[in-house]
Amino acid sequence: MEKLFTKAANWVAHITGLPLTFAGCCLVVIVWAVSGPVFGFSDTWQLVINTGTTIITFLMVFLIQNTQNRDGAAIQAKLDELIRVSEGHNNFIGIEHLTESEVEEIRAKCERAAKRHDEKIATMAAKKAVAQKRGAKKSAA
Question: Comparing C-alpha atoms, which of 94, 59, 87 is closest to residue 73?
Answer without folding.
Answer: 94
